[in-house]
Amino acid sequence: xxxxxxxxxxxxxxxxxxxxxxxxxxxxxxxxxxxxxxxxxxxxxxxxxxxxxxxxxxxxxxxxxxxxxxxxxxxxxxxxxxxxxxxxxxxxxxxxxxxxxxxxxxxxxxxxxxxxxxxxxxxxxxxxxxxxxxxxxxxxxxxxxxxxxxxxxxxxxxxxxxxxxxxxxxxxxxxxxxxxxxxxxxxxxxxxxxxxxxxxxxxxxxxxxxxxxxxxxxxxxxxxxxxxxxxxxxxxxxxxxxxxxxxxxxxxxxxxxxxxxxxxxxxxxxxxxxxxxxxxxxxxxxxxxxxxxxxxxxxxxxxxxxxxxxxxxxxxxxxxxxxxxxxxxxxxxxxxxxxxxxxxxxxxxxxxxxxxxxxxxxxxxxxxxxxxxxxxxxxxxxxxxxxxxxxxxxxxxxxxxxxxxxxxxxxxxxxxxxxxxxxxxxxxx
Length: 429
Hints:
429 residues; 8-stranded mixed beta sheet; 22% strand; TIM Barrel; 16 strands
């Protein structure tokens, strides 16, 4: 019976995960493209009415120029043009069905796994990817989970045949999941291992184990020759030469203070991921030059004493303090709502262009790809979205065209195909 169930589950996964789709990655740009008569939002805070963008060989070659003879002209009159949205922290492509263990490939066994590379597990055929593209999200930072040091993240572009094609910036950061420094109430009183406050002591012990790992790695990397290669130490070499950043996942003030101390001790480029209470130490974060990836603004505060709408207002408070931040969303399929989360931040103190920067240029800066993308500027990759309305507004935003490195990508996805299928069945065309 177990064998029969296993075969049935295998057939289900094969048909569900690997069914042939009629959505293919776009070929390399071969013709000059001119987007004309558009309202251009550059991502830098500028808005250029009735402007144009010229794209050649995957790059933006002119803004406000005239279309050359033979160019493909896209008339965007009455529409808005934006940089491609960037999802900075997601398990996209690393999981497909949360409830099906076989599709989850984002965590490794053990606590210290810096040598694990998320990019090699990235599934470019994930059906979720199309739902992001159709909402204007063109790049994503795919992030491993689990343990203390969960591995390296990479930035991918969302129109590719495989992970090699998708890689936009590989292994840009190492991720540290800081244990929660909060005493947990124990309804049964003291346990056999001691009072509930021991949870904080245990968390500090685990944090110290990570510090000790970095100290050992530093000693190893400073040694000219080794009798054996240690892959875990080699994996964090980029932290010490600053070709990588250390992304520390934490929310509470005391946790962020520990993160700052780690940055100071090892001279790492540190990014806070989560940062629910970042507004309480915004000036200190700005002074320490530590960016923040704000996770899921559409959530409740961590502390019971906080205002219920505090997560909506945190972005504006960080902006006012001069903290470099971007906005993220938790999970993978939820990423399609990323721009609407930014829109909420726009209603709680950010200007619309600041909210746009929080999911474009700021995200690119934090992920280390701002020289290539994140804004509409001459010389950068043509990662561009055209919308009928305000991309931050769920009601008016309808994406009509999207380009990744100058390639016009399909906006079709599994959900839109199902919608068309049942429109046809019930004669609703």
